[in-house]
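ok, trying the design again with the full structure, not the truncated one.
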């Protein structure tokens, strides 16, 4: 790897990097040996920092293993490799990279968009799949989908390399009292008669949730309470918790005529998806343990389950943020943290500009985003030159707004939480701005995660969730999950690339607004721990100061494309478009003209995502909408 890194990639090496690559190779080899003799061992978790060649090293090891298989054909057992990565584009790139390193076709990417056949995957020394495909198949180890991933012409694959921690490794199930009532009301009489056991289960679930909701309101608004510890509570002759056949029968329901009295395909599909999701969630909570939660006026029953059981062959996880990822602390019997040498990276040329404020979560940011963004843009333009390239990370609901503002930078691009991890789109940018933080529903998310990984706890734990010296482990889990997401976002820009022997990078500026409390302090500590030598610079930015008037004359076309990309299928009124894009009446009329032009690039881009302009009525009272259809 050292020779490949310096001679083929023209990248600077160091003793720390060489030690890291050696640890990776030894860990891969150990995992193969243990899998080959049938040992069910812990997952081996490595934390190679971003930019240290972890993915390239995995591809090189896989290519060398394929070469070894060919050289020792007939004399030694061949070793098949499974590589698991986040995204489809990454799967394609990794398979191509392995083939390039091997100078022949030994790797195959298999996913929903690939043309590779099952036979090609079976014949390949190296198979590359996405996190989602892996998790879906792992839910039924021994099933056909799992065998297609782990079996090949050489027998069982002996090494599974998981690039970054698996997304959605815990399945969360949640149904609300309102959602259950709505779904039950949508079941036609004939269907209800055909599925009496399922209907009884749903009615009993509603009754249990109503009872708990009443108790919560009478008991000073208790937010969390254990409902049952195992699904067997519901097993009796009258109740059937298996909703699969009911869900299938419900797919023929004309929800549009049932709810609005007329045909409307978009409305029908939206209601169908809502009902089906509720029934699926109901089965999950009925068949597992469950807890009650109240958030405002919403009452819900919740459960969760670890989707990846024992039995993954030779699993090695390459997780750049393993130090902060609380998942591994909750899986001590399944995961072995492999120590690596420190000093592979230095961020001494990175300036981390830190401001503090309250109200940086999704709801608060959405309410005042345009006003706050105008202040942010003025502050950034006062500090940065016009030659800078800026990556802005924010919430999905606000992603379109920055595109409506003019800016003086060479480039300014926007991404949103949940859609940036692992991406290389901004790898050459010199500035990252974290504007709004990815808060989760702390109590519900952390309780479900903890129960799924550590087992169901009692009512006393729900009231005082201490664990392993943590006074409130839910708070720690939530904060650490935010730290992981923030560190991932920061490392989308060029600080990810090593340029010298000390592991340094080109100069970068990071701007972030952290909570003005202990959570903000802990996040800052985590960033510094994962990015050693970073220069922390106080930033006197005031999030909610006097209003700044900035020209909103950016591209309404780009902003509209992003707005519709992030919207669910359905109708969007032009008045909402005007408000979201900050358009004046004249600007709205110009945009209408563009949307009526079928050949305009913006119209074509919208059509590709299933969005069309529709007018209801012919008189002066006619109303115009953008309608987004379900993806094919």
């Amino acid at each position: 790897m050292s020779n490949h890194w310096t001679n083929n990639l023209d990248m600077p090496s160091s003793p720390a990097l060489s030690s890291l690559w050696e640890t990776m190779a030894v860990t891969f080899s150990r995992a193969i040996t243990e899998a080959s003799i049938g040992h069910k061992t812990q997952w081996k978790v490595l934390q190679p920092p971003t930019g240290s060649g972890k993915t390239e090293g995995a591809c090189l090891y896989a290519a060398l293993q394929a070469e070894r298989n060919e050289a020792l054909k007939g004399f030694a057992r061949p070793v098949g490799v499974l590589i698991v990565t986040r995204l489809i584009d990454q799967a394609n790139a990794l398979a191509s990279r392995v083939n390039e390193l091997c100078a022949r076709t030994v790797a195959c990417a298999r996913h929903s968009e690939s043309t590779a056949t099952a036979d090609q995957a079976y014949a390949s020394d190296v198979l590359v799949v996405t996190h989602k495909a892996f998790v879906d198949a792992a839910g039924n180890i021994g099933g056909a989908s799992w065998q297609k991933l782990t079996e090949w012409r050489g027998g069982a694959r002996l090494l599974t390399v998981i690039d970054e921690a698996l997304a959605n490794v815990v399945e969360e199930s949640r149904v609300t009292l309102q959602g259950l009532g709505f779904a039950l009301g949508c079941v036609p009489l004939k269907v209800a008669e055909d599925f009496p056991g399922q209907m009884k289960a749903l009615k009993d679930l509603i009754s249990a949730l109503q009872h708990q909701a009443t108790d919560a309101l009478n008991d000073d608004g208790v937010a969390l309470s254990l409902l049952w510890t195992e699904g067997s509570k519901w097993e009796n002759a009258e109740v059937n918790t298996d909703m699969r056949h009911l869900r299938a029968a419900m797919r023929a329901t004309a929800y549009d005529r049932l709810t609005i009295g007329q045909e409307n395909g978009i409305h029908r599909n939206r209601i169908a998806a809502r009902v089906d999701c509720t029934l699926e969630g109901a089965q999950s909570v009925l068949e597992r343990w469950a807890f009650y939660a109240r958030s405002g006026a919403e009452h819900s029953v919740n459960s969760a389950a670890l989707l990846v059981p024992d039995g993954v062959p030779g699993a090695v996880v390459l997780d750049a943020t393993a130090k902060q990822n609380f998942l591994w602390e909750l899986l001590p019997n399944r995961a072995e943290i492999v120590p690596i040498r420190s000093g592979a990276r230095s961020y001494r040329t990175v300036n981390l500009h830190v401001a503090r404020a309250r109200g940086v979560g999704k709801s608060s940011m959405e309410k005042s985003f345009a006003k706050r963004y105008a202040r942010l843009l003025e502050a950034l333009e006062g500090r940065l030159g016009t030659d800078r390239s800026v990556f802005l990370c924010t919430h999905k609901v606000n992603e379109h707004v920055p595109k409506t503002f003019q800016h003086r930078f060479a480039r300014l691009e926007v991404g949103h939480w949940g859609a940036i991890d692992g991406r290389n789109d901004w790898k050459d940018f010199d500035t990252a701005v974290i504007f709004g933080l990815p808060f989760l529903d702390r109590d519900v998310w952390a309780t479900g995660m903890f129960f799924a990984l550590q087992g169901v706890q009692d009512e006393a734990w729900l009231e005082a969730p201490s664990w392993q010296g943590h006074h409130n482990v839910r708070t720690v889990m939530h904060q650490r999950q935010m730290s992981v997401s923030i560190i991932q976002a920061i490392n989308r820009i060029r600080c990810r690339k090593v340029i010298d022997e000390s592991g340094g990078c080109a100069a970068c500026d990071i701007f972030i607004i952290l909570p003005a409390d202990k959570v903000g302090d802990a996040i800052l500590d985590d960033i510094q721990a994962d990015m050693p030598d970073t220069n922390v610079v106080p930033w006197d930015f005031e999030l909610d100061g006097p209003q700044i008037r900035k020209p909103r004359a950016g591209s309404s076309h780009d902003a509209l494309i992003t707005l519709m990309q992030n919207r669910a299928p359905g109708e969007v009124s032009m008045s909402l478009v005007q408000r979201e894009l900050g358009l004046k009446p004249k600007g709205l009329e110009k945009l209408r003209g563009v949307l009526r032009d079928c050949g305009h690039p913006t119209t074509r881009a919208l059509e590709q995502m299933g969005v069309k302009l529709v007018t209801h009525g012919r008189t002066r009272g006619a109303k115009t909408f953008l309608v987004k259809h379900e993806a094919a």
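Keeping the full-length input from now on. Residues 196-218 form the longest helix (23 residues).
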